[in-house]
Design brief:
This protein is of the alpha/beta class. The strands form two sheets. A six-stranded parallel beta sheet has the order 3-2-1-4-5-6, with helices on both faces. Strands 9-8-7-10-11-12 form a six-stranded parallel beta sheet, covered by helices on one side. Helix 9 crosses helix 10. The termini are far apart. GO terms for molecular function: glycosyltransferase activity. Keywords: Glycosyltransferase, Membrane, Transferase, Transmembrane, Transmembrane helix.
Length: 412
């Protein structure tokens, strides 16, 4: 389904359904005594639509596993399921992949989800989505007695009934990883009100690095050699020029990616550029590669399988990307990544791991997408993106390359 269709269904069907479910849950639990502390033995996380968020949530999941002695489960859209394979925190048999091609297959998978939760004996559900009515309904359908998720508390709007048993006030002024860990602290009983008062040091939130097999790296290198037979000891600069349809306003201008690529190859003869992307992005990526017009810039859209991305990142030296999934996938490696932000803010969504550097104007209108508007904007001119000049990006890249690699040739 298209993002706008999902938003429409979530609003017009989600609001009345969450209201009705709230009434049903009230009467089914009115005589049931709620335990003082959640039973975390079988805990299900729900994060359907964002592959990057599944990576950002990893420190929170590991914290619950370590401190709550919990067996972890995860529900995610099937198309995003591979993001959980990068760090393998959740065993594959504990992942429920939900199809989202249309409302009918989604309805079938919701029924399957109900039975799957019973078979796994889910006790607690932690909803990582930001005020999605659909995921709130899934928490209720799971049969879990403890349902933890974000609540608006005294904030207006964002209604999704009284389905969540342990609401946690979402804080739009701190990084999303801090909000995720606040959900875990609620599950662990560190506070008993919707306000997550237990202190969290953002700098102490560490993302695990992926374990990469050298054989996988060699196979990726061979693929690159097949695409570029002249490959020797050149260093690799990755350009990720596209972004998902969930928020297309995040895309930096293709001609500016091309200008960066042309200047970089002119100044650095010992590098090559790989323009990456999914198979359906081939033509979009090709347009940028054609504008760069250099044999050392190769269109690899569709060339690498998802499971080959992390090995690719591990043998590369630099990436420039829009604010999108690859920025978060790269964070499980040591790859230096420059991330272009516009309608969203790095204050909330900068990839973890310590190697990502944001490029962000921080206009008064930014960020224009948030939980309050279900990440929807109608801005067409996009000054937060179009205002980012190639000179601004080039300066950051040049500074990094000059300070990191001793053989750097600056054009005269």
């Amino acid at each position: 389904m298209k993002p706008d269709s999902m938003r429409t269904i979530d609003r017009w069907a989600g609001v009345p359904l969450t209201f009705l479910f709230s009434i049903v849950l009230f009467f089914t639990t009115i005589f049931r005594k709620r335990s003082a502390k959640p039973n975390l033995h079988h805990t299900l996380f729900i994060e359907l639509s964002e592959m990057g968020s599944a990576i950002i949530a990893d420190p929170a999941m590991r914290k619950l596993k370590a401190e709550g002695n919990a067996e972890l489960y995860f529900a995610i859209f099937k198309s995003n399921k591979k993001s959980l394979d990068l760090l393998k925190t959740i065993p594959s048999e504990n992942i429920f992949g939900m199809r989202s091609e249309n409302i009918w297959v989604l309805a079938v998978d919701v029924i399957k989800f109900i039975f799957w939760c019973r078979s796994k004996k889910i006790n607690t559900v932690i909803d990582l989505e930001l005020f999605s009515r659909f995921t709130a309904l899934l928490t209720a359908l799971s049969g879990a007695s403890t349902r933890i998720g974000f609540g608006s508390i005294h904030d207006e709007g964002l209604y999704r009934g009284k389905i969540i048993t342990h609401p946690v006030r979402y804080n739009a002024h701190v990084h999303i990883s801090v909000n995720f860990i606040s959900l875990i602290n609620t599950a662990l009983g560190f506070h008993n009100t919707p306000y997550p008062t237990h202190p969290i040091d953002f700098q102490s939130i560490k993302l695990e690095k992926a374990i990469i097999d050298s054989k996988d790296q060699q196979e990726v290198l061979q693929k690159i050699k097949n695409l570029y037979p002249q490959l020797g000891q050149q260093k690799i600069f990755l350009l990720n020029v596209n972004a998902s349809d969930l928020l297309p306003q995040r895309k930096w201008l293709p001609e500016r990616f091309a200008e960066i690529g042309r200047n970089f190859l002119e100044n650095n003869p010992d590098w090559i550029i790989l323009a990456t992307g999914a198979p359906n992005e081939y033509e979009y990526v090709k347009n940028v590669v054609d504008m760069i017009n250099d044999s050392r810039c190769i269109n690899t859209a569709g060339a690498f399988k998802f499971e080959e991305l992390v090995p690719l990142y591990s043998i590369s030296s630099l990436m420039l990307t829009n604010d999108s999934g690859p920025a978060h996938f790269a964070s499980v490696t040591n790859l230096k990544t420059f991330v272009i932000f516009g309608p969203e803010t790095p204050n909330l969504y900068l990839p973890l791991g310590g190697n990502a550097e944001p490029i962000y104007l921080g206009l008064p209108c930014s960020p224009c997408v948030s939980a309050a508007n279900h990440r929807k904007t109608t801005c067409i001119t996009r000054p937060c993106i179009t205002g980012i000049s190639t000179a601004m990006v080039q300066q950051k890249i040049d500074s990094f390359v000059q300070s990191t690699f001793p053989v750097y040739i600056k054009a005269t």
